[in-house]
Structure formats: structure tokens, C-alpha cells
Amino acid sequence: MGRLFDFMLPENKSPLTADSTDLLFNFINETSLVIFLGVIFAMTYFAIRYRRKSEDDKTPLITHNNTLEITWSVIPLLLTFVVFGLGYSGWLNLKTVPNDAYEIQVTGFKWSWNINYENGAQTINEIHVPKGVPIKLVMTSSDVLHSFFVPEYRVKHDVIPNRYTYVWFQPEETGESQIFCTEYCGSSHSNMLAKVIVHEPEDFQTWLDENAGGPTGSPIEQGQQLVTLQGCQACHSVDGTEIIGPSFKGIWNRERKLADGNTIIIDENYIRESILYPGEKIAEGYQNVMSPYEGRINDEEITKIIEYLKTID
Amino acid sequence: MASLSKTENTAQITPKKLKVKRFVPLENPINTYLTDEKGIWAWLTTVDHKKIGLMYLGAVAFFFALAGFLAIALRTELWTPAKTFIEADTYNQLFTLHGAMMVFFVLVPSIPAALGNFILPMQLGAKDVAFPRLNLASFYIYAFGAIFTFLSLANNGFDTGWTFYTPYSSDTNSAGIIWVTLGVFILGFSSILTGTNFITTIHKLRAPGISWDRLPLNVWALYATSIIQVLATPVLAITILLLAMENILDIGIFDPALGGDPVLYQHFFWFYSHPAVYIMIVPGFGIISEVITTFSKKTIFGYWAIALSSLAIAFIGFLVWGHHMFTSGQSAVATTIFSFLTFLVGIPTGIKIFNWVATLYRGSISMKTPMLYVFIFIFLFSIGGFTGIMLGALSVDIHLHDTYYVVAHFHYVMMGGTLIALLAGLHYWWPKMTGKMYNEPLAKTAAIFIFIGFNVTFLPQFIMGAQGMPRRYYNYIDQFTPFHQTSTIGSYILAVGFLVILFYLVHSLIKGQKAGPNPWNSRGLEWQSNSPPDFHNFSHTPVVIHGPYDYHQPMEEFQLGLAVDHEYGDEQDKVAAEAHASSATETTEA
Do the chains contact at A36 and B392, CB–CB below 8 Å? Predict the structure, then answer.
């Protein structure tokens, strides 16, 4: 505790995954600092002590010294073996998920994180977890590469389409921790933020029970929840603000000019097409950046979303 | 001596040793390579390695200024979270352009193609590179590749980052990405041809007496670099071709939507791009060795350690690409091996640093501008090296990967290393290239501005990276604001330094004092010519009887040559010269 380079690191909220990393971070920094200062000191001392006094200065012929060469090759080599070993063991620990870990499914897409729990509960950009329990996130992407990073847990892994990857951690205090996307994924890469929210185990259970089964209520209410859970609002506002895509406010039955010059009326079929195959009809003045929802959403859900969109004025 | 038995007529020649004449370079040469052929057409069609080197230097300086200007724009945008003055999409295109231009148009060709082209044949005592026309072709291929990159800007641009990771790069329906990858594809050939040219030149065009153990370390470094260029660049070409096939023909190679594998792309990409890091830095090592000996007036410490460590870096450098992919989902065994090998490549680099510092011991150290840059290099590059060890350590890299820590690390290596070495070399050889001396106090002031500006820019990035600030972020959370603002201020100081350099270098061309042939009293062969050199570099065939760093030998013995007046004469002369050089060595050593 209280090592020299701790100031560079964020708070450690998952000691089981972070401790060995922090230790090694400090070890490398401290060792490097000693060698670095040695080199800089020697260099500066020589520059002053042996500064040129006249253009006729004679210098001795020193071509090499095997003892020195071997010393400054072997000592760093041994040091790097230590660093490799420590890094390797810490990494094995990060790769080895405890058997009793609690599993949560995470899907990354441009530009949100969709979270699924065992009982059908869903959240967007918020991962609710219990304190003091190992958590395993099983992650995949539905479009391009993303990367899941929680600095306070020292965990990170790329999130890859058509493949599952995972991270694990065990938060030891309640509160929130920042999640970043660290693999560049387009316009809103830097807004693809999320939070881990750590509850006391009993509070977590209550939260989970309350949200069981996903969206509830009337079709319109369910549609509203789906718009949130599917991350639509990262690009489409409901209050008329222009973000990356057109706002949802008051779009129903309006005319829309398309990028190809045609004009259409926004109806059920246009909305359905725009969700499943967004590249087909681009609204004028917008980029074709939305990823297709084909395979990620079913017709029943689309119908509910349409019902909700009709109501936004 | 072994070479004597090769030719039949050697036996007849050996007894009549040719006399070697002393050639003192002229103080005020009238005919130089600059006066030899004049006019824009003569420059554009020249096969003179010196002019081609200068044209590369101009192109590199142009792209550096452009990419540096983009960097200032990026840093200014990051003054506040969210929008400061440009939109997210513009920001994403600008950082991509900054990275791609700096890597492909500045760092890769900077030292080998610009300074190397000028200096390498002179250090070997040759009249030109082995294939002068191919050398000119390389330059035009480079220019052609650059034009394609600008065409991509006219076609929606590209915002993928310089790494072009799939599937983002294949999903993004921007024509720009096809143009720029085509540009990089073309550019690669320039690099391959320059490498081939240098390897041949080093093998075949060494002046009489330049045995492998008398090869300047700059030549060893360029030799190692050329090997990497020739072996690694084709892989980039293939990767880009596959990417283009996927984009244009919808063949699934990297895109999971088409049944491809995005991690495969990363393997292909880094198989070139990691060795490319050594293409960028190893030539810098060569410059440091030249400058540090000249300004300490002393033999290099550990000649073979430095020469061979360049080759070691070149070879091990091929086996560490996977350390860019510790979080990518590559196999666990691969990850472990890549981490281990990464540390091994750090060792030869450390050896170099220790040998350079040891060279200073009991030297006669003159802190002229080039030497000042060497000290700055050792300071900054060491930090780059140590933070590289940090990133090679598996568990720590998981935390630091794709954060500003990585950004700071590679700027310390690439800018603190390669570009500072380039500046050292530029200031060192400027009097040779132009015949003019720059303003020394101004040059030192600029160096200090750059040193301070650089650290103010990039040191805070280590801290915010370790705190968790991801790279390639247009927006950021408030806690990082002070670090970003410090960094932005630093980038302005840095820019001032570069403007000062631009000013006094241009000024020296117009009003600079005559430098004279050898202002630093170097023993290097390139300094035993006129400044600027004449078209054929030397008016004679130089004969070398000492190593390039033998400061314990008098200058006269470095100014020897055969008077054969621009031509090698017949083969007999050449052999005779070798015979003399070898025997002269023996007498010197005896």
C-alpha cells in the first residue's frame, strides 16, 4: 500500500483483479526510474566532467569492455524475466474466472451497451451487480469491434462480432464505476459510455426481481422501454434535438426528404425498414452510419416501437 | 586478404603497390552537386542520390508540417470535453489522417529515404546508390502514393484510425478508405525498392578498405532497416489487397458478416506494422552513433554490440507483433509467447543506450546542437523504452491498452526517438548538404523549446492514460480536463520550436556562413569531401585504412584516395586499391 506510482492509477475497486496489476505497475515504474536516473546522471556527469577544453583534446582509445557489456545485458534480461513472470501470473488470474461467478450477458453495438440478466431483465448502459461476488460478463458485438474497459477494475477485453469473449471482476464496495469503449467504433465512440452499479447483494436481488422479464405494460409503454433498451436514443432524440440521426419527435405521417432526392411519408413500413435495413432509405442530411437491427429485434418488438413512435409529438 | 586470391591477375599486381595520395577537401568548392545541373527539370529527372535525398527531405518536411498542423487542431479541440471547434466526425478523420501521414509519409521514409539517401553512398565512398534510376522511381512511387491519399480526402475521407481495423473499415461505406489503402499499397513499393537499393549498395559499392568492421554504424542501421523493409512491407501490400477485395468484391476475409475473421486482419496488419516500428527507429540509432562519436571525439564504445544489436532488433522485431493484440482474443499461448519475445527485443535497445553513454566517458564533449539532440534523444527515448516494458507486461497491458498511456508511449518512441534523431542528423549533416552553417544559439533555443514542449505535451498523457482515458476520444469525462489542457499547451510550445527551426534553416540557406568541408572535425568518410560535395561525391576513389571512429589517428590518414578522376578505371585499379588498403591495415595495426 502507498507505493510511489499509485498516484497514476485510478481507485482500486476490485482487488482480486486489480492488486497484481497495481503491484507490477509500481514495480516496473520504480525499477525503471532507478535505471533511468542512473543513465541520465552518468550522461550529465560525463558531459560536464569531460567537456571539450580545446579542439586539440586527445581522447583515450577505449573500444569495448566485455565484462561491462555482459553486465548490462544480463541484469536487464533477468529483470525482464521477473516482469514477464509477474505479468503472466497476473494475466492468468484475469483469464481464470472463479467457478461460482455470476453471469451477465453484454452486447456492444454502435454506440451503447445492452445488458441481459438471467431472469430476462434488461438494461442499457448500466450493469447492475452485487457486491463481493465474482461477476463474469459474456460479451459479443452485433456490429463492429468494441472493447469493454473498466479502469477501476483493471479489466479490458475486445468485444467481437460472431464471437464471445469475457471478463470477470469482483467489486468490493457499493457505488458506480465508469465503463469505456476502447476500440474505435465511429462517430460516437467517445460517447459509448456506461456504468457498473454495485449494490449490496440483497438490494441487487430486489432490483433484479423488480425488472424480471424485460419490458412491461401497454404496447406503447413497452415500445418506449424498447427504444431505451435498444440504444436508439444514442442517436435519435425524442425532444427534437439533432444528434447523429433524425429526431423521433413528431415524425409520424410526416413527409421526409431522402438523400436520393425522393420524398416519402413516414409510415409503419418505412419505420420497419429503417430499423432492419437502415441503409436503404437515408434521410437527407444524414450519414449512413446506423447498424442494421436485422436479427437483433423481432416483429412484435418493432410493432411496439412503432406504436410508441406514433405518440411522440 | 581473402579477396586477393579471387582474381587471376591479382598475383601480378600485388607486388607493385599503388601509392595512395592525400586529398584534402576544398574550402571553397566551385563545382558542387547543386551547381552541376540547374533548373526544375534537372531536379525532377536527376538520378543523383543527393538531390533525390533532398527531394525526399522536402516531401517529408511538407507532410510533417501538415500532420503537425492537424495535431495542433486535434489538441485544440481537446481543450474542452465535447465540441470546442470541430465536429466529432471531422475530429475522427483528422486523427486518422494525422496518424496515417505521420507513419507512412513521414516516419517510414524520413531517415532512410531522406538522410540515408544523401549520406549512405558518401559514407561508403561511392558515387551513388547501386541503382540510381530505381532510386528516382522510388521517389515518384512515394509521390504517387501520396496523391492517392489526397484523393481519398476528396472522396468522403476516412475515419478508421491509421490501423484500418475490420470490420469497421469494411462496413464503412466510404470510398475514401479504398483510395487511402491503395495509396499505402503503392507507397509500400517505394519502401521495398529503397531497401533493395540500399542492401545492394552496402554489399557492392564500398570503397577500397571499407571492410564490414569499418562500416559506419549508420550504415549498419540502414542495412538492418532495409532488411525489414524488404521482408515486411510485402505483407502490408497483401493485407491491403485482401481488404480491397473484401470491400469491392464482397469476398469474406475479415468481415464477420461475410464469414471472415476480424482478428485475422489484426495479425496481418501488425505483422507489417510492428516491424515497421523498427523501420522507423533503427535508422535513428545509426544517427545517434555517428553524432555521439563526432562530438566526443572518441571511438564508439562497443562497436559490435551496437552494430549487431541493430540486426538482432530487426530479426526479433518480426516475432513480437502479437503484443498489439493482448486484449483482442488471440490464443492464450500466442499471447504468452509474444509477451516473452517482446522483452527480448527490449534488451538490444538497452545495450545501445548503455554503449552510447559509455562512449561519453573520458571523451572531449562538445555540446553543439546535434549533440544536444542526442542527449534529448537518450532522455526521451529511454522513457519510451521503459514504458514499452510496461506495455509488454501482460496484466498491466490489459489495463493500459488503447489508452493515452499507449499514445504517450509511442510518441516518446517515434517523436522523442525517430524525429529527435532526425533533427540530430539534420543539424549534423546540414553543413555537408548545403555548405552553410545555421545559427547555433537559435538552434539550441529551438531544441530546448522542443524538449520542454514535448514533455509538457506527453508526460500528462501517461498519467491520464493510466487513469483510464481511452485513445481516439473526441469527448471525455470531466476528470481528465486538466491533463488535456496541459497537453494542449505543451503542443503549442512544441510548435513554436519547430517554427524556429524552419526559420533559421531557411535563413542559413540565404545568409548562412560558409561551413567548410568538415566543421565538426569528424573522421567520417562523408566529411572528407567538399561541402557541398561535387556531383560524384569525391573527385577520387577514397581509400580507407581506419575505422570511421578512430579519433586516435591523425586526420591525414582519413583523407586518402586513388586519383582516377571520376572513373574507377579498369578493374585492375580497383583490385590494386583493395590490395593496398588491406596491407596498409596490417602495417597500421602492427
Answer: no
Phi, psi angle pair for B210, to nearest 5°: -85, 90
B176-180 contacts at long range (C-beta below 8 A, 24 or more positions apart): B176/B152, B177/B152, B177/B247, B178/B152, B178/B244, B178/B247, B178/B248, B179/B148, B179/B149, B179/B151, B179/B152, B179/B155, B180/B100, B180/B148, B180/B149, B180/B152
* Domain architecture of chain B: domains with CATH: 2-589 (1.20.210.10)
User: Is the domain of A196 the same as that of A232?
Assistant: no
HSE-CB of B427 using CA atoms within 13 angstroms: 30
| Residue A237 sits at the chain B interface (C-beta within 8 Å) | no
Considering only CB atoms, B393 lies closest to which of A28, A187, A188, namely A28
Q: A residues 263-282 near B, CB within 8 Å?
A: 279
Asked, for residue A144, whether it belongs to a domain, the answer is yes
Residues A205 and A106 in one domain: yes
Q: Are residues A259 and A226 in the same domain?
A: yes
Residues A66, A70: Cα–Cα separation, whole Å: 6
- For residue A90, give the chain B residue with the closest CA: B395
Q: Are A208 and A119 in contact (CB under 8 A)?
A: yes
Q: Are residues A141 and A161 in the same domain?
A: yes
| Residue A53 scores a pLDDT above 60 | yes
Average pLDDT of the residues in B509-534: 93
Q: Which residue of B has its CA nearest to A27?
A: B390
Q: Which helix (H) or strand (E) holds B131?
A: none
| Domain containing residue A106: CATH number | 2.60.40.420
Is residue A163 located within the same domain as residue A179?
yes
Q: Per the structure, how many domains does chain A have?
A: 3
Q: Which of A192, A210, A228 is the last residue of a domain?
A: A210
pTM, two decimals, is: 0.91
Out of A210, A232, A258, pick the residue that ends a domain: A210
The domain of A18 spans: 6-49+65-95
Q: CA-CA distances (angstroms) from residue B337 to A79, B36, B343, B394?
A: 17, 55, 10, 11
In a domain, A56, yes or no: no
pLDDT (tens digit, 9 = 90+) per residue, A259-286? 888 888 888 889 999 888 888 888 888 8
> Which residues is A181 bridged to in the sheet?
A148
Alpha helices in B257-403 (DSSP H): 262-294, 303-316, 332-360, 369-392, 394-400
Grid cell locating A128: 447492475
Instruction: Name which of B86, B345, B394 to mutate to probe chain A: the one with the most chain A Cβ atoms within 10 A of its Cβ.
Output: B394
Q: How large is the ipTM?
A: 0.89
